[in-house]
Predict the structure.
Amino acid sequence: MIDPQPERRWTATYAAWADELPEWVSERVFAAAVDNPVAWTSHRVELARRYVVFDTANLQDSLDLSGARIIRDRVAEIDAPSRSTGHGIDLPSVRLASGPTLPAGRVIDARGIARSPALAEQTAYGVIVDRARWTGEDTLFMDWRPDNGAKPEEPPSFLYTIPVSADSVLLEETCLAGRPALDPAVLRERLEHRLRSRGIDLTGTEQVERVRFPVQGGRPHDRRFGAAGALTHPATGYSVATALRTADTVAAGDTIWPASARAVHALRAAGLRALLALPPHEIPAFFDAFFTLSPHSQRAYLSGRDDLPGTITAMTALFAALPWRIRRTLVGAVALPQPARR
Ligand SMILES: Cc1cc2nc3c(=O)[nH]c(=O)nc-3n(C[C@H](O)[C@H](O)[C@H](O)COP(=O)(O)OP(=O)(O)OC[C@H]3O[C@@H](n4cnc5c(N)ncnc54)[C@H](O)[C@@H]3O)c2cc1C
């Protein structure tokens, strides 16, 4: 395992749908679990799906690296096995920034995705406050209510709230996906505006969480993993649960990319293009329609990475639930080409 900072502690707050996680993930690594998170579009919806928030430090510590040789370095180049096999064993290899080249039976590229203006990103700005200060619901998966001061013609953002410990909650203003995504400074202003309108004046001493990462740009491939391997859901930004769930299969050398998963990946990419093409004021209406889908279809769309029939059913039902003016935009958007991959 090669990483420039193998001992770096993770600091982001990660959450996931409980049913996406493999059995070996222990409940001990959860900071909180909520059975019915809430979404707000034009009305309040309770989602019948358990949502868990990780205790990031415990999650990291639980991922056992014993048996792995850890090399503190940067990968400069990954070379495929040469085609002129000749004699001897022809292996892929990794050239390290410090000079040496290491041969390996298999090389898995998990280097993440470099930021690029060509790639849509998710951004968010959040603060952690005492639970006592927050009288709203402690788990809001998405709250699109228009009390954040944004004008209707501006790209929208939503409030995301989760408990992060027994006595604190994370309140985060999130731009789901944008090319470019909303600047964190704008999200900060909107968060402050929204919280003020709900009775909380921030003091400026709260712990801050900043989010910015590409939601596209990975490539489905058996030699790639994590964001680099297209495990990020392009329309939601989630990837952590998928990485945990698929890790054993990848380690065993089996594929996580059957034809069904590749087809779902293409449909999800079309879903992102649709989201990016929607006029800002229509985004809440899009999610209004999304949350009318059956729990089964919502789950298929959000998590069924190799469930092709489920994804098609969900997307068809979503399309049918949308007003005509939005459908027309979506039809145009999904025909657009995809951005270049790394
Ligand atoms: C604040 C925040 C909150 C988030 N919340 C959630 C959430 O709730 N749920 C969720 O599913 N996702 C969430 N995400 C997204 C999630 O963090 C990413 O999708 C995920 O980290 C991708 O993991 P990865 O390991 O593939 O890539 P990265 O996290 O980008 O890691 C890449 C690794 O590769 C190493 N590396 C890079 N280049 C080289 C090189 N040349 N040689 C060797 N090593 C290299 C880096 O040091 C790093 O360790 C959040 C992101 C942020 C920033």
Q: What stands out?
A: The helical segments are 56-62, 184-197, 240-251, 259-277, 283-290, 295-303, 308-321, 324-334. Residues 2-5, 12-16, 74-75, 110-112, 209, 211, 213, 226-228, 232, 237-240 surround flavin-adenine dinucleotide (CB under 6 Å). The radius of gyration is 21 Å.
